[in-house]
Specification:
single chain; seven-stranded mixed β-sheet; globular; nodulation; repeat; Hexapeptide_acetyltransf; acyltransferase
Amino acid sequence: MIPYRSEKQKMLAGDLYSASDPELQHDMAQCAQWLVRYNNLNGSLPERLGAVGENACIRPPFHCDYGYNIFLGDNVFLNFNCIVLDVVPIRIGDGAQIGPGVQILSADHPRDAALRQKMLEFGRPITIGRNVWIGGGAIILPGITIGDNAIIGAGSVVTHDVAADATVAGNPARPLHTGLHSRQIT
């Protein structure tokens, strides 16, 4: 017999769940109240996020689903207007710099239309390594891992994992040839 799991437990495990569940709606409402305070008064980060390293900075406005699935290392910087859909853990390593308008999207939806009609969704964790630089307007899709020291060009759509020390750009993001100046991609 399969033990009962709440919709929140299913969500955190990356399984199909219903976002309309009362517990999740309550969590989202609490997060929305925190975001209003944070975005209008530049409130304290640690009160809502899963973990916040030393000298981490998120410039408002900032948008997320729950907050408690976001884990920031030391010296992480998120510029204005970042969106982080955190239905499962999103980990951002020490020294990562994330440009304005970046979207980090762990939420995903079934490919089967019948499941989508049931308003079910799931999440796939995202890991962003140490000293990663993500240019403005980039989109990081569910389940992506970006290795340490990688660079993601502005406006890129990251659809596959990015190796450590790689530089990628475009839609979909692809490795760039060496020798290009960073000014050309970000």
